[in-house]
Amino acid sequence: MSHTHVLAAVSRLDKVLIGLGAALAGLLLALPLFGSPLIVDKLTLLMIYIILAVSWNLLAGFAGLVSVGQQAFIGLAGYFVLRLAEAGMAPFPALIAGAVVVLLVAWPLSWFVLRLKAAEFAVAMWVLAEAIRSVIMFDPLVQGETGRSLVTLNAIDADLRRTAIYLMAVASAILVLAVSYRLLRGRLGGESQAIRDDEEAAGSVGVSTMRVKRTIFLISALGCAIAGTLWLASAITYQPRAAFGINWSVFMLFMVLVGGLGSFLGPVLGALLLFALQEAFGDFGAWYLTGIGCVAMLFALYAPRGIIGLITDRLGREPLSMRKELDVRSERRGR
Amino acid sequence: MLDTFFQALVQGTLLGGYYAIIAVGLSLMVGVVRFINLAHGDLAVLGALLTLALIQGAGLPVLAAIMVMLPLMAALGWFMHQTLFERAMRGGFLLPILVTIGLGAALQNGMFGIWGSNTRSLGADIGTLSWAGWSLPGGIIVGQLPVIIFVTAVLVIGALHLVLKKTRLGRAIRATAADPEAAEMCGVDARRAHRAAAAIAVALAALAGVFLAMRGQVTPYSGPAQLIFAFEAVVIGGIGSIWGTLIGGIILGVSQALGGLISNQASLLTGHLVFVAALIWRLGRSWAADHGGWRASVRAALAARGLRRNARRTGDLP
């Protein structure tokens, strides 16, 4: 029996969904040609949400690593962009380089935090985010609480800037989705889900748990960093308190939990929902955020599989599932 | 120079008393219920704002307001455990983190919605206590309030120690912590023990919040920072140890006060660094324990490296 034939083929529904996704991506890329500036700005924010949700879900939903400190990478990325721009790098290359430089911090960090136990990891990440913020506040460039603008980016013509940032955001979101799809469908997806469900058992059947967890951790950190640079690019001003705020974690948690933890489509649905809620109720400020917290709590308690879980129950199977499904017929034929 | 150093040492130790009070409730929950409540700091702020409302709204004297607030917060802790935490705990280790961070966000913004964003303080309501101090020989001045907080911390932790060691409830809580199923079989109501622990933890958080508002100011968003301090004190002192939280709190307070000699920002940073150092040290210790002690494990690691290098040279292994 050969192992290559055991996994089920991509189902018809999934193929349709992938096709729809590709068409939607094409539409989004063409949007600046006919969309109004307001819509372009809003959709940039939506793309940032999607990137954040997918990145956090990689960590929590697939590797079982719940972190409430991913804002460390959002804040760091913004800071690095500012530093690189200050050193004379052109704004757009700086936006890309800033996100990549975050990996240089995330890599040594991973060596230490991934050895912590579940809940310790979660809170230790938060403390590390705070620690990194207090280190950054020492840099006079940031100007403490007032923050600092990305001046060179601000100098670019507003329409051009808006379109460029939007296209970067769409491209990044597509990239993050495509990369995580590829990885999760492949060996890494099986390995990480095995670790999530039982780390010791996964290790005992030959999964190199540390390597898998580190890979996922780094990809997730890069995703948050990309979102961080895009956010800085669209907000222009960098304020450490906002960039390292715990609200990022609350948003990521909300999107992933409500959409569906550990599913591929869930975070995207969650991002859409958060975006829609923000449009509808964002003006209520604190009460809106109270509602976000309460809804996240209710989903965690009463529907921990999120919207995707409800859809799965109705369809009988999860759309775009990353579970390893065995095809019983082909297995029989294989014998 | 030496004067300011000793002054910082004394202030830091006294500050540790505050950290111990907020940390001991967290430690109780982590150690006994195996539940990390990420809304612990927000509950502290809620206690402070509730006390303020009782004083300024209902016109109660300070001590009476605290006496009314503490049972209310304990009841809230009991209720939250019954309705939220128990259900979250059944869903594995992940769910409690998610539920309590959602709860924290709801509490922070709810308090903002009710009380607004103004910084509030109890300083004006406690009269001279907020600034009065005693002079010690050597030119060191200690504030009366920090001393009161420190003494309260020692009393609270001592009382908690006695409750856990001597009373029926304490035995039930400890038995449940050791083995919930075995405790149930011996007639202990494990759920009641957990709820009681949650009630104590929330009441202690609220007490800490009151002290925070007396020492300085609180806003609806002060909670997360307090949770981080509490968590740091718990980890530095050793997770699950009641007296350890006092030691952890003092170490955290002293390192912040010493960092504060450099600058305000440095004060927070030194606290975080001591926490990270404690965490790395504990990781290293457990790694060494797995390998037969520090000396043996370092020797083994070096030997393994030598073997690998030899193997690579001779081409025995990939």
Describe this structure in words.
The complex is a heterodimer of chains A (335) and B (318). Chain A is mainly α and 335 residues long. Helices cover 73% and strands 1% of the residues of chain A. Chain A has helices at 12-30, 37-62, 71-86, 91-113, 118-136, 151-154, 158-185, 187-197, 199-204, 209-235, 240-243, 247-259, 266-281, 286-302, 306-315, 328-334, and strands at residues 148-149, 237-238. The radius of gyration of chain A is 20 Å and the shape is globular. Chain B has two domains: 2-261, ABC transporter involved in vitamin B12 uptake, BtuC (Orthogonal Bundle); 264-318. A two-stranded antiparallel sheet of chain B has the order 1-2. In chain B, helix 1 runs parallel beside helix 5, helix 1 (2-33) runs antiparallel to helix 8 (190-215) and helix 3 packs across helix 8. The model of chain B has no long low-confidence stretch (mean pLDDT 89). Chains A and B meet through helix 5, helix 12 and helix 14 of A and helix 3, helix 4, helix 9 and helix 11 of B.
Secondary structure: number of strands of chain B: 2
Main structural class of chain A: mainly alpha
Report on the biggest sheet of chain A. Answer: 2 strands, antiparallel
The Cα radius of gyration of chain B reads 23 Å
Q: Largest sheet of chain B, described in full?
A: 2 strands, antiparallel
Largest interface: A-B, 45 and 44 residues
**Taking strands numbered 1, 2, ... along the chain, how are they ordered across the largest sheet of chain A?**
1-2
Helix tally of chain A?
Answer: 16
CATH topology name of the largest domain in chain B, in short, is: ABC transporter involved in vitamin B12 uptake, BtuC
The termini of chain B sit apart by 60 Å
Mean pLDDT of chain B: 89
**Oligomer kind:** heterodimer
Q: What count of domains describes the coordinates of chain B?
A: 2
Beta-strand fraction estimate of chain B = under 5%
| Widest β-sheet, arrangement of strands of chain B | 1-2
CATH class of the largest domain in chain B: Mainly Alpha
The helix/strand series of chain A, from N terminus to C terminus, equals: HHHHHEHHHHHEHHHHHH
